[in-house]
Amino acid sequence: MGPQSQIMVLFGASGDLARRKILPALYNLAHDALLPERFAVVGYARSDGDDASFRDQARDAVRQFSRRPLDEERWRRFARLLFYVPGSYDDPGGFGALHERLARVDEQDGTGGRRLYYCATPPAVFPTIVRRLDESGPHPDARIVLEKPIGRDLTSARSLQDGVRAVFDERQVFRIDHYLGKETVQNILVFRFANPLIEQIWDRQAIDHVQVTVAEPIGLEGRGSYYDNAGALRDMVQNHLLQVLSLLTMERPGSLADEAIRDAKSMLLGTVRPLAPEDVVRGQYTWGVVEGHEAPAYRDEPGVAGSSTTETYAAVRAWVDNERWGGVPFLLRAGKRLPRRTTEVVAQLRDTSTLEQLFTETGAERRCNSVALQLQPEPGITVDFRAKQPGHGVSVQTVSMHFSYGAAFMVEPPEAYERLIADAMAGDRTLFVREDEVERAWEIVAPVLEVPGPAFPYPAGTWGPSAADGLLPPGRKWHLR
Ligand code: NDP
Ligand code: BG6
What we know:
The protein has helices at residues 16-31, 51-65, 72-79, 92-109, 126-135, 154-167, 183-193, 196-199, 224-228, 232-249, 258-269, 355-358, 405-409, 416-426, 435-450; strands at residues 6-11, 39-45, 82-86, 115-119, 142-146, 173-175, 207-215, 280-286, 288-290, 293-295, 313-319, 329-335, 342-349, 360-361, 370-376, 380-388, 395-404, 455-459. By secondary structure, the chain is α/β, with parallel strands linked by helices.
């Protein structure tokens, strides 16, 4: 049975997220017949517009960003589901017009009064949206989707959550961290718990350190005013990177039920030590060349203050203080304007071999066994191990064994947003973040947000400031550099 009839109310419908992710995801869900039988999207934003102009914008968005090319016939059917109401968040009148329109759509399209409120505005606007909804409440037949980051620190996150709780029950709240919607991120648990080969080495006895890198060649894509108030620690580390860390390190959940997985992640986050200032290196990009194109300095980007010290790169050394992981450093880094797009986890094994007693190792540097999960853009898993070099004598060299998702499964996985929107419409919270996880994640990053440090300059198109090398254990190197 598909999800129940409903209307998605898309706040911030004129924005970047709506254009790049949400509207293309909805088009693909329509293509796969995964939308409710009776469904509509009512966009709401301050920009002027009407149904026709919203449909035009959506068409452009689908043409540009959908994983499937736009098909005219399918598009015509999909476009009929889209409506737009312009209005502000400060003025209750705007929401009056919105609710009138929603009632009319219900009447015409049989969407049954159910709502999925999707907050795709900058996070500072979420509390006002919730307040406006409260004024028009109660909302027993509604769900609310909140984008990350939830708040900009622990206090604002708590205050937002209090506001949300006054209107919605936790069952109705869907906090998105779109990394959890990625197939390859979901595969982390399968990789760990379905393979004895991995499960047996997944602890401090065997693992020396773990690196998680989210590298992006893009800059701000017109999001300067949001980003300059956020920075990489709030935009990436507090949410995506800590979620990936929790999946990498959590204990086996009792089951795959949503609360079992969320309990296991939450318990793990409780053991992550709050970051100390010496565990963080920040960077900010200067002019450079990325993927063959010149890129302006961060401070010259539209919407960014000329004297901004906001970090566009953050590397942190996290510690998980429990029996399994005590003493193993987890190096997490995220940056804009890095040389290429890649998201990768590398677990480096301890070098306990007595290699030199028996063999000579060739190659520029000694490399021990490692397991690398390439999460995007070309998903795969690579295991590095040592092998005998052909020829006389016994010289060993590190070689790689590679698995590619594309080659093995020959299917194109759905985009993260397709999965998450479908789950929110169906009320499945497994891949959404619970309130306590959000709060704990803020507690982990709080000490470094409270003490701003220097943002070392790095030229666009490089792997970030060299100061980040100092976070690694002695003698180790960044896997991508
Ligand atoms: P945008 O800056 O594009 O904002 C979205 C829309 O919100 C704008 O089009 C604007 O519409 C409205 N808006 C902007 N500022 C204000 C304001 N001060 N008051 C009221 N409305 C405002 O943001 P994004 O779309 O990039 O991001 C939206 C949310 O999604 C954020 O929480 C972000 O962290 C999250 N996100 C974004 C991703 C992305 O790739 N863009 C990816 C993952 C999460 P109008 O002026 O017409 O009202
Ligand atoms: C978003 C951040 O949450 O994730 C963006 O706000 C970032 O700054 C994006 O570009 C990265 O997502 P992905 O799916 O492209 O790795």
